[in-house]
Amino acid sequence: MRPKWFLYFIFFSCLFLTGIVQLANAQQSSDSTLSPKKQKLLISEYIKSNDTLIQLETRWSTRQMEYRLYYPDDFKLFLSPNQTNNISLGFAYRYVDISFGFSPKFFNKNQPEDLRGLSTRAGLSTGFSLKRFYFSLEYSTVKGFYLKNSKEYARGLPDTPFLLFPNLQVLQAGGMVSYNFNPRFSTSALKSGSQVQLKSAWTFLPTFQFARFRFRDKSPVTGIENESTFSTDLNLLLPLMGTLVFAKKGYVTASLGPSIGIDFFKTLSYTGSQQIKISNGTSLSTGYLFQSAIGFNAKKFYGGLESTIRSYGHRIEDVDRLRKFFYSVQVYIGFNLRAPRWAKKSLDWANKNSPVKLE
Questions:
Q1: Which among 134, 84, 130, 73 is positioned nearest to 106, based on CA atoms?
Q2: H or E element, residue 79
């Protein structure tokens, strides 16, 4: 991507963020015409806060990622880990949530024989709310990929249905910052049971995403060996999100929006004579996000089913387009438990001593 595109992206991102601040200030000004008591009453009609309860939840999910590389002359490669079932354990209390996920072997026995045991993955994520802002951090690692469109090249492959890359590993680390335009819409109700959406509402949820990927393959090859490829994404997601509440305890949620950003990439490789070869560049990134969910909230527990599709792509080196495609389906159930006194005191202390009020 030429440098001027980078300047254009920075300019329009700053312009967009300035607009968000102005609209937020305007919305706060209009809300300030109501008395604090009426403001609180109006919001409490839409959102119930479970700030005296701790949420413990477990999720079963099938997560998948694909890295689709499109080359000139209609040559393409779709790299993917073997689809695995994951278990994650989560904890949420007031403005903090933490979860850890892993893929137990006994959950992934029914796999094609050629792909069985190929992929392993693990991840850790955390987040916290700051009034209408939500901040999240995530780290994940996946090892073991195969060529998903191997059938297109069956004649050139050895006697196997799939071309395997067992030593290919992708490490991902990043974070997101979201701003909720509608104070009567609860994003926390979608992430945990710390809040409950009582009435139907919708919102505009602009989100800034930072993600850094490291692709590395330690397989011995001849000629040029790619040691590591780094891809750093800065994306601006612009989804509209709505929740329809039915039968008091049930809800349906959907979210859809485009994304635009830039990608910085760098590749370190070694030639046959062990000389280091470095290539780097930047490119424009575009894509979309779609999410849907259905769930319920009871007094002592909650649960639901949700799905996510995230896709975006950009040019990288001699690849016309690298498309990063992620999708998942999750089933979850959580329990509301009385918060211990030490947990309440700890978060009260953090809120009191924070330079910015967390609640």
A1: 84
A2: strand 75-81
DSSP three-state, residue 163: coil
106 within 8 A of 70, measured Cβ to Cβ: no
* Strand blocks (E) in 180-222: 195-197, 201-204, 207-217
Q: pTM above the 0.85 mark?
A: no
Q: Which two tokens stand for residue 316?
A: 């990288």
> How is residue 77 written in tokens?
């490669």
Contacts of 141 by beta carbon, 8 Å cutoff, 6+ apart: 121, 122, 123, 169, 170, 171, 172
Q: Convert the pLDDT of each residue in 101-133 to its tens digit.
A: 877 766 666 666 667 667 888 888 888 888 788
**Cα 143 to Cα 78, 82, 147, distances in angstroms:** 16, 10, 14
Residue closest to 264 by CA, chosen among 284, 241, 240, 239:
284
**Three-state SS at 64:** strand
Residues forming beta bridges with residue 162, ordered by sequence position: none
